[in-house]
Amino acid sequence: MTKQERATRTRQALIRSAAVVFEQHGYAQARLTLISSGAGVSTGALHFHFENKAAVAEAVVAEASRGLRDMSAAIRRRTDTALQALVDTSHALMELLRGDPVSRAGFRLSCDGERAAAPDLRLEWHHRVRELLDEAAAAGSLADDIAREDAAAATVAVTAGFEVLGRHDTEWLSPYRLTGFWQLLLPRLAAAQTLPLLDPAGTGAVAPTRAPALAASAVGEAEETAELTAEPT
């Protein structure tokens, strides 16, 4: 394994550990020692990758943003219609929030007043919802009298609300809850000829959550030494 590969593994382990610590303790109470120990490295190794706690938080949000974009794009490539892609992407988002601490912490860090870190993931989600609705309208899949911005606002408000409520009760992030929402909205949203083709529970295009982060044991002291003495790339 090259030095660059080891550095990438360490950085990813630190981001995932930071997400867990931010989620458990909040930004203000999160300590760098907890983050580094959770990744199985020293605080010196952490500072090789990140200047301070704010930089770690920015990296968590950026990783969550990348995951959201990649997931949405992958689902759209595998889905025949934009409206079904919207349903499937919302289910995949809830799956990420159930199973991926980076996504959960990223939304919380970027949207809460405690630590408003760019980018704003709810704003990104709103843009993606609106893009899919615009695409559905162009294909004739939406009911004629639907205001797309109202539909986007309703979708984002419900899914963002599930994310907030799910911090304390994961039942709010369940497929059952989101399916119920789409069962209510789709008959109003979709054109008559499109509605029978849609599955409010999502289809097989829903992407799985990202794979678990590399085990902390894979990051050894020899790697730390190499990173601390090497020039950053």
Structural account:
The protein has 233 residues and is an all-alpha fold. Helix content is 67%, strand content 0%. It contains ten helices and no strands. The protein has helices at 3-29, 32-39, 43-49, 53-78, 82-99, 101-111, 121-138, 148-165, 175-189, 221-229. Helix 4 (53-78) runs parallel beside helix 7 (121-138), helix 5 (82-99) runs antiparallel to helix 7 (121-138) and helix 5 (82-99) packs antiparallel against helix 9 (175-189). The chain is elongated. Residues 207-233 have low confidence and may be disordered.
Please describe the structure with a list of short key phrases separated by commas or semicolons:
mainly alpha, 0% strand, disordered C terminus, elongated, single chain, 233 residues
- What overall form do the CA principal axes indicate? elongated
Quickly give the structural class.
mainly alpha
Query: What is the CA-atom radius of gyration, in angstroms?
Result: 20 Å
- N to C succession of SSEs: HHHHHHHHHH
- The helix count comes to 10
Can you tell me the residue ranges where pLDDT is under 50 for at least 5 consecutive residues? 207-233
* Largest β sheet strand count, sense and barrel closure: none
Distance between the termini: 17 Å
Question: Would you count the extended β strands for me?
Answer: 0
Report the helical percentage: 55-70%
Oligomer: single chain
